[in-house]
Every structure is written in C-alpha cells, then in structure tokens.
DNA sequence: TCCGGGTTTCCGTTGAATGGAAGGCAAGTA
DNA sequence: TACTTGCCTTCCATTCAACGGAAACCCGGA
C-alpha cells in the first residue's frame, strides 16, 4: 500500500511551506516521511530537473522550473495579473495593506499582497494560508463558497486572539450579514491592532473567484469609504477578467 | 536507458509553456514522448496531488499546488514581491509597459509585467522567454551575465524584425556600451513600433539579479528621464532586497 | 583525537511501473 | 443506422527500476 514514486516525489515538494522555504535533505526526508537514502535519490532527480535548487549552504529551495510553471497556471496567474493594477490603486487610495486571496480547501490562500513601501510587520506572506473565520477575506470566501466548506469550518473554530469568533452561531450570523451586505469586516480577530474589510471578486460568469481585502489599524467611520473603494477595485478586476476571458483562449 | 519515473512525470509538467497553458492527455503524452497509457497514469497522479487541474473541457492545466510552490521560491518570489511597488511607481511615472526579467539560460524570462489599465496588445506574457539580443532587458542581462552566455548568444542572432541586430560585432559593441552607460535601449528590434530602455537590478551583494525595462512607442528625447526613473526604481528594489535579506532567513 | 550531525554510495531484493491491446465514448460522416 | 476517427480509460503479465538498510564519508566542534 506504499505510495507511488511520483506521489512520494511530490510529497517532498509539499514539505515546503511559507515558514520553511529552505530545507536540508534530512528535513525533507523527515517531513515527507521516508528514509534518507530514498529522499536523497528523489531529491537528486528533482534537482536535476530544476524543481529544486541547492543553496551554497547545501539546503534545498524550490527551483526556477517550478516558479516558471506557477506562472503558467491560468487561473491564479491570470487573476493576479488582472488584479495587480487595482491593488495598487487601492493602496494609493487607502494606504492600507491590500490582500488578494482565494479559497483553498477550508483555508484562505493569499495570492497577492501589497503593503507599499512601508515595511509593515509581515502578517501574511504571499503563499501562506490563514483561517477563514478570523480574516476578512476568509469570511467573504466562506460566505460565497460551498455550504459544505462552511459547515466544516463552523465545526472547527480555533481561537487566535481574544476577539476571535469561536461560537458557530455567531459566525453564521456574520456570514449571513456578509451575504446581505456584500462585504465582511473583522476587528482584531486575527491579530491585535488589526481590523479588516473585504469584498468578493467575481469572475466573468458572476461567480466569486477571490476576495479582496484591506487591513487597517482601526475601523472608524471610514468603513463606508473603504468598502466603496474595495468595490470599485473588485469590479475593475472583474471587468479585466471578462475582457481577457474572450481573448485568452486563443 | 529509459528515464526514471519521477523525471518522466516532471517532463509531463514541462510540456506546458506560455503558448500551451492547457493540454489534453494525448498532447501531454506526445510532448513528453511516452505512450498514452503511461501518461494517463502519471497524469492521474499529478492530478490527484494537485499539480495539475482538469478543466471542464477535459484539458489539463497547471494546478494550484504548483502555483503555491512557485510562490515559495525564495529568489524569484522575493524579487517579485520586492519589485512590485516600484513597478507600479514606474508605471505611474511613465505610463509605459513595465517589465521585470531574469536570465534563464540564454533567454530572458519575464517574471513580472505591468501594463496598467490600458489593454495593450500582449507582447510578453509573464512566464514567457524572449531572446536576449532583441530586447532591452535581454541586453542588460547579457551585459552583466557570464561571458560564456554572451558568446553563445552572439553565435546565434536570429532575426525578428528588419531592425534586429544580427551581426555579432554590432551587438558586442552595444553590449560594451551597456556596461559603460549602465542602461540598454532597443529600437523596433523585437517588434515594430516598440522601443525600450532597461537597467540592471542589483542584489544585496551588488550582483545583477534581474533587469528592469519599459517599452514605449518611441524613444524621443525622453530617454534621459526614463533612464533616471528606471534607476530610481532599480535602486529601490535593491534597497528592499537588502533590507529583507537580513530579516529573511530567520 | 573522537564524536555527532549530516550526506553520499552501494547493492541484493522485490514489488511497482510499464505499455500493448482491447474496450468505451462522443462527434463527425456516409 | 452503421462506419470511422480520435480521444480517454482499463486491464494485466512481464520486467526492470525503485527501495532502503548498511556502511563509508565529510566536516565542524569538543
């Protein structure tokens, strides 16, 4: 019942995560749960192909070849590219950290982030996953995603800060409001001193493909203005996606 | 002498390129040079793991999992992220299409691109490779790259437009000037009606890690202004890279 | 010098990858 | 309706490459 060669090699790649961008051979073997000798051989092949690169220190990192491939992923790459100018506009208009996220299973995956020139303490690296129930973009993705996912998330509300919503009923109530209002907010539910607003981003067919959010230290009476700015940006992204959708596929 | 399982699976992934972002099973098998039955199994595994996704049409595209991994590639992803705000500034200052490229073998790989809101005819998709000798960023990468690469490129100057430089001596002369001046230009050498200016982007250690360029319809007396703007951006990127280099590795 | 951590090589065993062949399926054609 | 064509999928007997324990190796530190 042991896994196939290919999937084992892939699991080696899966050992990388936002907090572990470089790993030693033994780390990789440990994380992928295989003998070092085996990992050594597989890593060798991955390296030879360019999926992994080796630092001077001997540690391995994701190689250029995979980065290239990532660029070829039609959905995310297209989305990122379409969204890029609008993220900038949004930053210009609000001077807040801007996030673009999609749903990945029961978590929110951050696919782009713009914090401008100011070096903000990194809350969310690109490529990282954050819980749905404690972030603005997460709540949006939850509200417009499959019910099954919502159910699953409701069953597992882990506490992050003192303000994190951990009662299913309360979260459900909020999700309903998100659906009604078309935007979500958080208040220090993920990290103290950080509030957020987020809106859905729709694809050409009207389906929600991503969430666009901004993080601000405090959600004063600005809320209406921020929501308006977010909506303009989200609509712009949708328009770009629609335009390119017709031209895209040959 | 047949290749290992892993490398065959990887070759399947390598079948994708900027012009073929979606492929059928048979396409993949053909391009990777293996029997369909074998490709079927391997593709199945890649799909199961999330390296490939399947469209409604039955075609396969690069899956989310690989996109994620791409985000984790320290060099390119870090570079892209560091460069992002400066690309926007540059666009704001020049309203020209902005390119960020790195060297990949003997070609220039475009890792980011910003054409603002205007829907410009796509010259260069992100992830595509363009020849060194006919692009601004290419000439920069050539000028600051290994001599061996330069020699190789000089030996194979394919014509693209009527203005493409195809005489090794002339290109070499230009490369020398790039090294002296610190910037490169092109005039309709890659596509008619498009001129470009590019400068090197240096890493923390002073080594050239990428090239930053802009494309304009015409290179009038603006050149000095454009070069200045490019340099400001390139230096900004370097500074960001330097700042994060210290914090980056834990 | 010896130790402990990693890495690399070796090689006999074995079980998983292989791919030809045949069966499906859907669209286009007579 | 029957025939063709071009896909995708399943099957399974053969075989050959993956496996991983063991031992050597390398290197920095005590």
What keyword list fits this structure?
2 domains; Arc Repressor Mutant, subunit A; three-stranded antiparallel sheet; homodimer; DNA-binding; about 250 residues; 9 strands; about 20% strand; globular; six-stranded antiparallel sheet; 9 helices
Topology:
Two copies of one chain form a homodimer.
Chain A: H1 5-14, E1 22-23, H2 25-32, H3 36-49, E2 52-54, E3 60-62, H4 64-72, H5 74-94, E4 97-104, E5 107-114, E6 129-131, H6 136-144, H7 147-154, H8 168-181, E7 184-187, E8 195-202, E9 208-216, H9 223-248
Antiparallel strand pairs in A: 1-3, 2-3, 4-5, 4-9, 5-6, 7-8, 8-9
Helix pairs in contact in A: 1-2, 2-3, 5-9, 6-8
The first copy, chain A, binds a DNA duplex (30 and 30 nucleotides) through helix 3.
Description:
The structure is a homodimer of 250-residue chains. Chain A is α+β, with helices and mostly antiparallel strands and 250 residues long. Chain A folds into two domains: 65 residues, Winged helix-like DNA-binding domain superfamily/Winged helix DNA-binding domain (Arc Repressor Mutant, subunit A); 176 residues, GAF domain (Beta-Lactamase, 2-Layer Sandwich). Helix content of chain A is 48%, strand content 19%. The first copy, chain A, has nine helices and nine strands. In chain A, the strands form two sheets. The first copy, chain A, has a six-stranded antiparallel beta sheet with strand order 6-5-4-9-8-7, with helices on both faces. Chain A has a three-stranded antiparallel beta sheet with strand order 1-3-2. In chain A, strand 4 and strand 5 form a beta hairpin. In chain A, helix 1 packs across helix 2. The longest helix of chain A has 26 residues. The termini of chain A are far apart. At the A-B interface, helix 1, helix 3, helix 4, helix 5 and strand 5 of A face helix 1, helix 3, helix 4, helix 5 and strand 5 of B.
């Amino acid at each position: 019942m042991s896994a196939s060669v290919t999937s084992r090699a892939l699991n080696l790649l899966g050992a990388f995560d936002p907090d572990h961008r470089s790993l030693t051979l033994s780390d990789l073997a440990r994380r992928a749960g295989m003998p070092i000798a085996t990992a050594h051989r597989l890593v060798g092949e991955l390296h030879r192909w360019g999926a992994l690169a080796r630092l001077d220190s001997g540690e391995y990192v994701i190689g250029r070849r995979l980065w290239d491939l990532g660029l070829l992923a039609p959905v995310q790459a297209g989305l990122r590219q379409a969204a890029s100018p609008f993220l900038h506009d949004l930053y210009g208009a609000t001077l807040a950290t801007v996030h673009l996220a999609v749903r990945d299973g029961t978590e929110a995956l951050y696919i782009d982030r713009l914090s401008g020139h100011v070096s903000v303490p990194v809350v969310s690296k690109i490529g990282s996953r954050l819980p749905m129930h404690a972030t603005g973009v997460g709540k949006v993705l939850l509200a417009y995603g499959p019910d099954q996912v919502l159910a699953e998330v409701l069953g597992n509300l882990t506490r992050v800060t003192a303000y994190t919503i951990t009662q299913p009923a309360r979260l459900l109530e909020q999700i309903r409001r998100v659906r009604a209002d078309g935007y979500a907010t958080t208040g220090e539910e993920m990290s103290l001193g950080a509030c957020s607003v987020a809106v859905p981003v729709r694809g050409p067919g009207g389906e929600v493909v991503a969430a666009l959010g901004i993080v601000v230290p405090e959600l004063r009476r600005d809320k209406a203005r921020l929501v308006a700015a977010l909506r303009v940006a989200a609509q712009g992204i949708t328009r770009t996606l629609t335009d390119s959708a017709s031209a895209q596929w040959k």
